[in-house]
Amino acid sequence: MTRRLDHTTRQSIAKKVREGVRPEVLARDYGVTVRTVYRCAQLMRQIQTERGSRTETVVCRVSPADLALFDAKLKDAGIRNRSEALRNVIRNTGGMAAPDAELAEALHAMKGALNRVGNNVSQIARRMNDAKNRGQPLPLSEEDHTAIRHLSGLVLDFADEIALMAEGRRNNLELEISDQLKRLAERGV
Q1: In whole angstroms, how far apart are CA 46 and each of 6, 40, 54, 174?
Q2: Element (H, E) at 84
Q3: Residue 3: predicted pLDDT
């Protein structure tokens, strides 16, 4: 025979379920069935949802440097609480999280260029391997060496362009986020 549980006990059981305590252990500790433990957890979730409680967790791993930068921006904006700032960012993204069509188009064009470079490198490697396997001298003329050096320069330029584009996009996002955080602070977050 199971006993009738009061609201506080149900809350305690639900909390321990969320913390990861196994239902079998809780059933034994509270003198109830495993089914009752599950019902308590479900009932408390339902009550929280009906009351508009915050029941979902968003997890994001960041580096210590990124977290320090975020905290500094919150402090500059006059916001003292990370959780409230993040909730407001989620509610008021205002296009911040929208994909950048211009960046996507540029990266697509660069992908085509990189594919062509990769194809050229494969052809050069094939010619060199064929010559090596036959015991012949490498079939590279001075013109080939110049082309390979030029190709290497293109790859390095390509990498630099991507780094510049990414840095520019990051700087734009930082400005947008700073502006949004200031607006949120002005609203009284």
Answers
A1: 16, 10, 12, 38
A2: helix 82-91
A3: 67
